[in-house]
Design a protein that fits this description.
mainly beta, 70 residues, five-stranded antiparallel β-sheet
Length: 70
């Protein structure tokens, strides 16, 4: 079963999403839109991090996940 991991760091103002194994991270690439792509040795994107992602302290984050089939 595939796993998606979502981390929100209120103090660091980052939202990190992994859809691959974080231990396979080999290189990071900044997109210029305050998004960093994490890639494995083959160059496949296995996660991303959104910088300067901040929510008011009174707001709780909820994650919804859907699988779309063709």
């Amino acid at each position: 079963m595939a796993q998606v991991r979502v981390y929100y760091d209120r103090e660091g103002n980052t939202l990190t999403v992994w859809f691959g194994n974080p231990q396979d991270e080999y290189v990071c690439e900044e997109t210029g839109e305050e998004v960093i792509l994490m890639k494995d040795k083959s160059g496949h994107v296995i996660g991303f991090e959104k910088l300067n992602f901040a929510l008011p302290k009174s707001v709780d984050i909820k994650v919804a996940f859907e699988t779309i089939t063709a």
